[in-house]
Amino acid sequence: MKPFLLVVMKPTLSCNAHCRHCYSHDDGSGVMDMSVVEKTVGMVRAEYDSARYLWTGGEPLLAGERFFKRARACQKEAYGKAIGRCGNTIQTNGLLLTPRFLEFCRDARINVGVSFEGGCDAGLRPGIDRAKVESVLSMMSKKGHMFSVISSIHSGNIGRMHEMYRFFRDRGIAFYCSPALRMIGCPESDLWMSPQEYAEACIALFDEWLTDASAPIPVLPFYQYLRASLSEPNISDCAHASCLTRWISVEPNGDVYPCSKPCPPEYRMGNIMDVDSISELFSSDGFRKVLVGSIERRERCRSCPIFTQCAGGCSIDAAAEGGIGESGFFSCESYRIIFPHIRDSVADIIDGRKDLSSYNRFVRDAVVGKLTNPNVVTPY
Length: 380
Known about the structure:
Radius of gyration: 20 Å
Strand order of the largest sheet: 7-6-5-4-3-2-1-8-9-10
Mean pLDDT: 91
Shape: globular
Low-confidence stretches: 16-29
Number of strands: 10
Largest sheet: 10 strands, mixed
Strand content: 5-15%
Helix content: 40-55%
Order of helices and strands: EHEHEHEHEHEHEHEEEHHHHHH
Number of helices: 13
């Protein structure tokens, strides 16, 4: 049995996020039929020792509370006493979260991810009810729910990343900075930034977080990059640790792709209702095309000084930016600036035997862990 698979489930591609650029394409297929959920869960359970399901979209909560309760019941039936090996995260804009549903999530140990910029969306989500989302975040924080926040960084709010950090820091809410990237099938956008602009803003925010000794939160992906500088990339940083054969993404109609980002039809791996195993999906022509292009790109990247940490970057990002076999676009250029700065900052702490009390506890724990167990790679 294989160790782990991350399964992205898109119960609906419709979106009520009020965002200018959804990055999802509604094919009119409606809400995912429960037969697709049952077939997916059964096949994953048969082949993998553990799995994590990421429910996203669009807005997944448009599928309704009953849908998620049935999906969780399906998982319990498949895993039985081993249900702890089946994790779940729901990524939502937060507008449809209710106290009753959040109690269900807590009882079922379902993590909730909220897409929110703390008031710094700068027009990305026109009409969003900020007060409602903040109220939900406050309630989850007070009641000890498992949750996190993803914040989109784009040309309109890149100058407010420090403000965003302080908003979440003061509330003790961990968040992930996610840059607005070109997506397959999406038009030109004024949200996009230059890689240099994004990298410089990220470095400035990393430096603030690094020396914020009382910071109660990690800031992702910077914390992931920090850990990578001490060991090697982890699958949680999927863009810089090959996720191929470790991820599948299931559309509402059962079509399967290798990534949750928009993929061209030629990367379709099949339909979950037409196959007998996950292995069959990874033997498809669609996946072979992704694999061949990824190998070509990584061969081009092999001489790069940070190839060990980057692993050639994200295949679907490359496909959107200029070709899956090519490199040197936004993701590549920005990472080649950000990662060396973080690596050198950590090396300076270690080599200079700096006073660790000047750094936040996440930095301290990572450095101490490396010094005491230099050969151990700690998941993050």
